[in-house]
Amino acid sequence: MELKKIGELITSNRILLGPGPSNYDPRVMKAMTSPLISHLDPEIYPILDETVELLKYLFKTKNEVTLPMSGTGTAGGETAFTNVIEQGDKAIVCLNGFFSERNIEMIERCGGEVIRIDAEWGKPIDIEEIERTLKANPDTKILSMTHGETSTGVLTPLEEVGKFCSQTSTLFVVDAVPTLGGMDVDVDGWNIDICYSGTQKCLSAPPAMAPITFSQKAIDVIKNRKTKIQTLYLDAIELMRHWGKERKYHHTLPIIMIYALREALRIIYEEGLEERFKRHEEVSQLLKTHLTDMGFKLFAQEGYRLPMLTAVELPEGLSEREIITKLLKEYNIEIGGGFGKLAGKLLRVGLMGYSCSKQNVYYLISALKEIMS
To answer: Which residues lie below 8 Å from residue 45, measured CB to CB, with a gap of 6+?
Structure first.
């Protein structure tokens, strides 16, 4: 067997403007070249501690159990649900896209009984329907919402739902995979009990870790389970014993990925949250204006559009596959197409973290104009 070098297989420096991953800051790449040390080496502990503190800053929380899971955003979802759901527990799941639909499978695999609240793809969830459903099911264990639905570009407000859940025993669980680091995710201020994300989108780190945070309300539920958590790897309490002061061995941490995440979080801290959110909003508006001027129709409902992910319907006669292929092969730009039942009907453009720049917008728009002409 002839073995080829990576450079012979991957020759392009892609401009990543899809729904994730995003490009890295050169500082993140440099951090990944740092010497590898053991996850039990005392020199790694200050790095773990700083990573946790920076995650608390980003999540806007004081939650003691805040850490990055080893795994992608889906591992964050699995961690959230497996720690609190037991056989027969009720879970209200809000659904308005492909990724919110996946939460059902994760919950059902834990033995949970799902109550659906559906909204049309492209539209936000009806907050009044959530409150009615919760009142009708006071024994609900969790309510699951997706903050930013990357399959449609829809933003769902959380604050009102969190306030309502805080007055009940129901845990408020939020998927913030695309939004964390690109817009406000106020865990404590919005009364979120479990919030998880991924590192490859607005954090602009490799797709290898899933930041997650648990409120004390959630930790109390976990500690009072009737049955043992069915997975050792995703056990939040055991994980925090390694990340916390005990330094009890749990599993071999991906140290190089922690270097990358820590540097990405330091970059966010240096930019400042408000400035970072403002950048995502302004660059997103620039993109949306140009796309609509060219005849594309914004898919998400007005007033509920994500800044970091824009989904548009194609003008008559244009092919999703042809545009995506030409952008990739001729311009070295990656964007996404429709997902799930919207396959072939949308373009999805991500402006996330390091990839969120006016320069990238102008290059993409110029390329699209050439392709369409």
So the answer is: 247
Walk along the chain (373 residues) in steps of 10 and give the mean pLDDT of each run.
Answer: 74 90 96 95 95 98 97 96 98 93 94 97 94 96 97 95 97 98 98 98 97 98 95 93 89 96 98 98 98 97 97 92 96 94 93 98 98 91
Tokens of 218: 């959630």
C-alpha to C-alpha distance for 51 and 57, rounded to whole angstroms: 10
Domains and CATH numbers, the chain: 6-21+273-372 (3.90.1150.10), 26-269 (3.40.640.10)
| Per-residue 3-state assignment (H helix, E strand, C coil) for 247-288 | CCCCCCCCHHHHHHHHHHHHHHHHHCHHHHHHHHHHHHHHHH
pTM of the model: 0.96
3-state SS, one letter per residue, for 162-193: HHHHHCCCCEEEEECCCCECCECCCCCCCCCC
Closest CA to 207 of 47, 68, 365: 68
